[in-house]
Amino acid sequence: QVRLTETGGGLAQAGASLELSCLASGSTWDIHDLAWFRQVRGKEREFLAAINWKSDAAVVDDAVKGRFTIRRVNGENLVFLQMTSLQPEDTAVYFCAVGPKTGEFETWGQGTQVTVSS
Hints:
The protein is mainly β and about 120 residues long. It has no helices and 11 strands. The strands form 2 sheets. Strands 2, 4, 5, 6, 9, 10 and 11 form a 7-stranded mixed sheet that branches. The protein has a 4-stranded antiparallel sheet with strand order 1-3-8-7, with no helix packed on it. Strand 5 (about 45-50) and strand 6 form a beta hairpin. The radius of gyration is 13 Å and the shape is globular.
C-alpha cells in the first residue's frame, strides 16, 4: 500500500509562487504515475499534472501550462508541483494521487489548502 503526504500549501498573494510537495512511501514500486489535482468545494476535481514513475516523463494540463511545473527529485519518492503567477482562482485543495495504470488513481493524499488573495 502506498501512502502520500502533501505539504507546502498556505496563503499567497496574487502573482506569488508556491511549491507543493508529495512524498510517497510504502509500496512505491506499484506506482505507475503520480498526479496532482485540485478541487474547489462544490466543484469537480481538476487534473493539473502528472509524472511517470519510471521515466519521469511529465504532462501538464493546458489550463495551467506555463504556470505550473511538476518535477520529481531524481531517484526519490518526492514530487513537487511548482506554481507561479498564482491567481485567486487557483484557490483550492490540492491533492496528489498515484495509481498502478495510466489514468487510474487509486491512492490519494489528504490534500493541502492553497488560498490566493487578490
